[in-house]
Amino acid sequence: MLSVLIPTYNCNVSKLVTAVHAQLNNSNFSFEIIVLEDGSTQNLNSSNGLNNTTIIENKNNIGRVKARQALASKAKYKWLLFLDADVLPKTEQFITNYSNTIKLDFDAIFGGFAYYKTKPKDSIVLRWKYGSKKEQIPATTRNLSPYKVIISANYLIKKDVFNLINSKIEDNKGYGFDNYFAALLQDNNVKVLHIDNEVYHLGIEENKQSLKKQEQAALTLLHFYKTEDIKSHSNDLLLLFSKLNRYKLVWLFSLFFNIFKSSMKKNLLSGSPSITILQIYRLSYMCYAYRKDTTV
Questions:
Q1: What pLDDT was estimated at residue 293?
Q2: What is the model's pTM?
Q3: Is the confidence at residue 296, as pLDDT, over 50?
Q4: d(CA 116, CA 168)
């Protein structure tokens, strides 16, 4: 028995819902699909007469964390399949692949992310390049460190486990909460399995917006670091920052960011961005933000 939960904001999910619904209809599952319009300003979605499919609406945007909690509270089945609005299953066996894992002894199963191989236009190449290199990772690699690459755009989880973990995330509309979600999974010893059951990421944003989200994600990590909400984690960026802070080198990377910010941004917003430079930008930006905040 499966509840498919899709939060959306001004995004047409008809293609996604139709694809998933067709696979569920051909399965042995009792199922429901619930789409949450999270304060959308455009009416882009309807159930299109599909059985076991519901569209609910929030008048105001409550953000990703609370939207997922609201969806979970509406779900009537034990297993929840969360999908982002801007994805599409890679194969016709998407539901079958997940159903084969339910009988295994795991609490959460992550299917992974995929990107089309053809390079997109220059204006959106940064997100595509980063995702292709850092998110499109085979399950065999992800399972070596199961809490390291957690992408919540496509995962199956027991309802009681989700409620336990998500309830610990403060009400915040920021970006980058997958890192905190991963840390909470690890801290609570949630049994995680990764499988090769990807969805294509379709909603690739413009380079400037993508870089802004990277900054927001770094600030979110920094917040949890300072409040000590993250205890156990496998996040490379936070591990590096913690080491720099321990050896009192944050000031040096903060200075580096101040000096080279413009030249780094010029590369990252170009048609041939370097992911190495992006990683340096993220780390030095985090150091800059930390030092700026602690020296006020």
A1: 79
A2: 0.94
A3: no
A4: 35
